[in-house]
Amino acid sequence: MHLNDGKYRDNGKAGYLLKPAFLRDPGAKFDINSGPFDSSERMNLKVEITSCCQLPKPGGTAKGEVIDPYVKVELHGVPRDEKKFRTKTIDNNGFNPVFNETFSFPVVCKSLGLLYISVWDDDTMADDFIAYASVPLTALRPGIRNFQLYSFNGADGGEFGHASVMCKITIE
Amino acid sequence: MSELLKKRGSVAEVARPALPTLESGASLTKLGRRGSPHTRTFKLSTCGSLLEWKSPSFFKSEVTTKVDMSNVMRITRGQSTVPFQRCKANDKVAGKDEQSFSIIYEDYRGFETSLDLVAGSVDEANKWFKELGDLIKYLNEEKCLMDPVLRFAKRTWDHADTDKSGSLELKEIEKVIQRLNINLEKSYIKAMFKSVDVDNNGVLDFQEFLVLMEKLSKRSDIFGVWNALVNGSMFESGATSATSAKMSQAIEKTMVSAGELKTQKISSDVFHRFLTEVQKMPVTLEQTKIKIAAMKAEGEAQDDTVSYRGFVSYLTHGDNSAFGTDTSVVYQDMDQPLAHYWIASSHNTYLEGDQLKSNSSVSRYINDLVKGCRCVELDCWDGKDGEPIIFHGHTITGQIKFYDVIKAVADYSFKNSEFPVILSFENHCSIPQQQRMAAICKELLKDMLCVPELRADGSMPSPNDLKGKVIIKAKRLKKKSSEEEEEEEIDDDELEQKQEAKTAGMEQDAAEGITRTKSASSPKKAKKPKIAEELSEITFLAGVHFKSWEQSKNEAASNEMSSFSEPKTDKFLSKCPGDWADYNKRQMSRIYPAGKRIDSSNYDPVPSWNVGSQIVALNYQTG
Predict the structure, then answer these.
(1) Which of B392, B394, B428, B545 is catalytic?
(2) Is residue B419 domain-shared with residue B536, that is, in the same domain?
(3) Which terminal Cβ of chain A has fewer Cβ within 10 Å, N or C?
(4) Residue B179, domain extent
(5) Which of A16, A66, A162 is nearest residue B334 as measured by Cβ atoms?
(6) Could you give the ipTM of this predicted complex?
(7) Dihedrals phi, psi of A161, to nearest 5 degrees
(8) What single DSSP character describes residue A171?
(9) Does any domain span residue B214?
(10) B265-266 and B306-307: which strand pairing?
(11) Do A96 and B219 touch (CB under 8 A)?
(12) CB atoms near residue B302 (< 10 Å)
């Protein structure tokens, strides 16, 4: 659902997204494993997770311990593009943890790619989910940018109203 | 860009609507969690964003409950929510539809909750409804336009000032710092409190609190970027990563150089270079200057420079989202055949929770449609008194009336998206109740109900062609010659789901009080036609049993489509993704979760999107 939310936020939230030409043209041949992947579909994506800001506690409760956050960065798309990374954990700071870690994604099929970022509270037992953001690669902007974070159920108000991840996005 | 500039240009003030009823407060009947109505006095808090009411408590004399109005998703008139449905038999609020309204909001966990109220008169209900609508609209605008730093401070203040004294004590500050996930020694907080309490009266007013927030929100991360802009190292060759590790040393210094920051500025030239070279935005220097003017806070010098405060505001503002396309503008070509689009789709839309025993509600349809979901599913069964109902067959999930769902579809489909809505019927009804289904659709949907023609080249019409229309996907009667074949056909979804259910060891009898038709319970033996002509006539997307890629390519019309369960999808994805991608260029396919996902968890939709499947149905009620 998190990927679905990010995908359909595009195109004015119309609920309809035009598929790329290789999935529309009767003459085009396309295989998710072997392509062909056109040069216009390729890019070198670098995502620097700079910091997070005003993170809520797990589930958005007001009480409880100060969290120990880390960030997972995932790319979803054709099998070749699927990749996952995570940052180190920053102890005791959910207000403005600074990570400054960069991850590289050599993308072959941009039109089918989605960037998924999730924030977790590091815990000795099981880590708690804090918030997420997802964006289709076709809508991703380069530069020092902000991701608004959403609760597990997609809420962006209340304790989540100001939660964000700051990134430096480089697209080559 | 110009749109954004316009928005930022009016940052200064959004006019606050007059809210006489909300501000003076009034007594309303509220439905309790178990549906029992009681009277409470509702009032807007002094800060203007929380709706409050007091209730008696066993432990204290009373407790105050608050709903943050910025979390409100929508307000509705009438009695459509679950608590209202539960207490319909109760004559105290029954029949007072005109006086009833519900505030539907997200609670702190992000779950949808409703506050269900009945006013003393229709006139009073009108006033409440109008003012609530104005307030929500205002708060939304404010959210878009207000300086994020100030907005955050305001919100934090509202929550911190628990005793509503208009000032904050040290204890309240300690609590709010813990709440903000900041780990600070108590002695440090005390020292900081003292340093900002300039009039030394032991409490902080809002201005003093703003200074404290500024100290807390130093944003050492942004300071690194700012520093690189001020000393010019951002554009030096080799310094590709402005926010690289060496910055972290500089970050430590931020604690002491706060005063310095206030005087630092960058010129419009430097900011222009930052926008074009780092942010890769094609803006001219003139446009940059307009943007700078829009970024100025009240009382700031109106020159061409950017202050640290302005820069933080720029970076953290919603306009600087990594999501680069304006999410309020439909920019794609909407004139291609339906099969050329991915369509936002929900699975078992009516369920509030898991797949076996959760509640069903009309509210879920409204929520999904308002969210932009364009394909909802209706699992239709025979109900009492000839009225078809919707629930998850063979389980004890709650039931809702088909009529109520279609009413919600008619009322809410096009609130946030004008593009067509697909109703996916899973039909288990007897012929008479199918006829009733068709009659209900015609009665309530009126002109929205549409059975379009295929285009001259045999392809389907486009989203633009079908704006404001509702189309139905269901099984259709075939032409006379092939009717026998039709009768042998087995409902694909149902059969597979049953098999999966069996293997998962969760075979269940249908809930009591449900008359199941013979055809639904034992489809193989059915000899009579299963589909009412009336329903078949209003169906556009014909659900057919998938035979082979070849057969589909050579014989199927473009509005014939098939459903594939999750296991089948996995099989096809690994064996013949290319064939499937070709199929999806002309015809539509619908993917639905495996029956074993009784907890309503979701599968990974990406592989199905990769081959171009249009309707990849997910459980919207699950995150």
Answers:
(1) B392
(2) yes
(3) C
(4) 150-320
(5) A16
(6) 0.94
(7) -60, -25
(8) E
(9) yes
(10) antiparallel
(11) yes
(12) 9
Cα first-last separation, chain A: 29
Residues B376-390 as b or e (16 or more Cβ within 10 Å = b): bbbbbbbbeeeebbb
Taking only the tens place, the pLDDT of each residue in B224-283 is: 888 888 888 888 754 444 444 444 444 444 444 556 666 788 899 999 999 999 999 989
Contacts of A63 in chain B (CB under 8 A): 178-179
User: Cis (ω within 30 of 0) for the bond into B17?
Assistant: no
A172 to chain B: closest CA residue = B280
pLDDT digits (tens, 9 = 90+) for B8-36: 333 345 677 888 888 888 888 888 766 67
Query: What amino acid occupies position B534?
Result: E
As to burial, measured by CB atoms within 10 angstroms (0-12 exposed, 13-18 middle, 19+ buried), residue B195 is exposed
Strands (E) located in A19-161 = 43-53, 69-76, 83-86, 98-107, 114-121, 128-136, 143-148
Within a 13 Å sphere around the CA of B317, how many CA atoms are in the beta-carbon half?
21
pLDDT at A159 over 80: no
CA distance B341 to B318: 28
Query: Which of chain A's residues have a Cβ under 8 Å away from the Cβ of B316?
Result: 53, 146, 164
Q: Would you call B221 and A147 a contact, using CB atoms and an 8 Å cutoff?
A: no
| Residue B213, token pair as written in the block | 């927030």
CA distance B520 to B88: 31
Q: Give the CA-trace dihedral at B141, B146, B148, B153, to 10 degrees.
A: -100
Average pLDDT of chain A, as a whole number:
90
Amino acid at A13: K
Q: Is A11 helix (H, G, I), strand (E, B) or coil?
A: helix
State yes or no: is B392 an active-site residue.
yes
Residues of chain B with pLDDT under 70: 1-14, 33-35, 47, 58-60, 88-91, 108-111, 144-145, 237-262, 298-299, 349-350, 352-360, 393-398, 479-529, 622-623
Say which residue the tokens 């239709």 belong to. Answer: B380
> Would you state the structure tokens that stand for residue B40, as one six-digit string?
């409470």
User: Domain of B175: which CATH number?
Assistant: 1.10.238.10
* Separation CA B177–CA B190 (nearest Å): 12
Residue B331 resides in a domain: no
C-alpha distances out from residue B62 to B5, B48, B54, B68, B114, Å: 48, 22, 6, 20, 22
Strands of B217-282, DSSP E: 265-266
